[in-house]
Predict the structure.
Amino acid sequence: MNATCHRSTKKSANRLGRIVAAGVAALVAIAPGSASAEDGPDTAEARRQFEAGVNLLDDPDGAKYEEAYHAFKKAHALSQNPKVLGNVAFCAFHLERDGEAVDAWTAYLRDAQDVDEKERAQIQRDLATLTSTAAKVHIVVKHPAKSFVLVDTRSVTRGPSIENSYPIEGNEIVLRVRPGRHTFKVKAGAMDSTPVDATVEPAAQVTHELTFAPPKPLTLVLPRESPSVAGPVVLAAGGVLALGAGVAAGLLARSKTNEIAGSCPSDVCPPTYALDAERDKARTYGTLADVGFIAGGALASGAFLWWALLPKGGSRPTTAASAMCTGQGCGFQIQRGF
């Protein structure tokens, strides 16, 4: 909670002096008698917190209402002494936590004994003013979580804005706030709701719904992968080998044909020469040559076509993955484009 209050009038200073003086009586009421080793730990701590609160209000540099507020709240929680509530209410009033000030002052006048008549009269005037001017603001949080912190910021004409924070257990809270220009928002963990600006009129009763903007999806763009040329290279190498085998088979077929022509001039062969067998070898070599040339040409053409169809530059495929969680669940999506 952060708040700044500027009240330096003589009336406020005199009243602060009465609060500090009354602190002595309240301090005695927390633990009658002088401090001793018989004091329980809660009583001793309550006295220390109350003393700290009084000193903070009496600070030479000006009353530190926020720090004193927390000290008095702690003192009351430990001691349950109603006289401390007067100090809690006084600080809450200066911090513009008007609902808490009304509740604490009402309990103080009802439960505390021997309240100074001047102080009682002043508190009754303050209560009359607060109850007639404070507005009731009903805040409804539209979110599946059940624990929030409400931040109320009131703009002022001069000086910094007044900001107060209130814990919310559940999804709604009713505040009594000072009239003026307010900005309301709630925090749920690391998320903030969409702020709501409102001009609150005196004694108004209004309701505001606070919602959270849909979370932006977390998008992960995977690096573009460079296209691999290994496939076309391997295919082209196979084509070269096939062409080489075709050339070698062709040379063998030509050599065998020349050998037959030399051994059988005018197709007249020696009786011992196996002409049919040699011609079969020549035909076999010729067939292998044809297969090698056809396969090699097909493989080389396929390798070139494969390489030509590979993505180039900006046409490389990209992959993007996105994830988003809402109150209805979580989703994950992968997109791939060219």
About this structure: The CA atoms of residues 249 and 288 lie 6 Å apart. The helical segments are 10-30, 41-57, 65-79, 84-94, 98-111, 117-133, 230-263, 275-309.
